[in-house]
Amino acid sequence: MRTVWWSKGRVKLIDQTKLPFKTEILEFRDYRKLARAIKGMRLRGAPAIGVATALGIALGINYSKASSYEKLSQELDRIIKTFQRTRPTAVNLFWACRRMREKFQENKDRSLKEIKRILIQEAKRIVQEDIDCCRRIGKYGASLIKKGSSILTHCNAGALATAGYGTALGVIKRAHEEGKRVKVFVDETRPRLQGARLTTWELKKAKIPFTLITDNMAGYFMKKKKVDLVIVGADRIARNGDVANKIGTYSLAVLAKEHKVPFYVACPTSTIDLRLSSGNRIPIEERDIREVTHIGNRPLVPKGTKIANPAFDVTPNKLVKAIITEKRIARRPYRQSLKKLFI
Ligand code: MRU
Fold first, then answer.
1. I need a labelling partner for 119 at 20 to 30 A (CA). Which of 138, 150, 152, 292 fits?
2. pTM above 0.85, yes or no
3. What angle do CA 278, 129, 49 make, to 5 degrees?
């Protein structure tokens, strides 16, 4: 399954706000509209946001009317800024901007036509690399899973959150493909319900048995020894191994520690931000309070209720048993093991 891709001068993606009831494909020729779609979470999940940004930059450059390298370079700055204003936590977005800018600069002596072609090619390469990374993460991660395991996951770290296959869900899919007869507890993941709407949809398609629970049920099932391990994705990992992921991940990690359940994180190395010394420095996105006060158009709370809506939290490295990447499985102390991934 593809989540976001390049097709005949357009960027196409599955509109995730319509799932699980309707599989609608959106098509973009204007990069600004694509950036708006990312902000509105029509596509979400850190690796998918990174891939869509790379494709969006290629789109913007491709249709630019700039007549010189300098003018095209200014256009690139504007395009990058537009994407950087969409979602601040997922570092894959910033990673994709850097990589596309480097490609642009490396080719400054070529014709504008050639630069455009090269950037489209680079964005397509990023799409394919993301799928390949997920497959490798799946393979490494599945080696940690015993036959018959019951796995709890949070949010959606599946094919929909990447260019295809998924990170945490990729590990689960791979274990299933290897015949390990795994079962999954899916946290519904308030307030946007990525678990209830998207992870269930993917697991159903993959014919992997699952049980949907509300977020506050995880401790109940851990105490009853119904959960063998937890595996989640990540939006940004600092140099010391602190992990920013969907709000509620931290509470899960604390519960897992209390019940001696191993807590794993799966992500591509593009999610690791060696520039940040610890999770305290990770910017946390605050989203519209309407996500909390309403379900669809239906209000849930008395008017004037004070609301907070941080979209992510940070799990301290000491609660993370291992970080599964496409290169290898990194373990504590993360300061050393994460750095080594880039050598
Ligand atoms: O707000 P979202 O839906 O973009 O948040 C997604 C998550 O937190 C995922 O767990 C994370 O991006 C990893 S996806 C492979």
1. 138
2. yes
3. 55
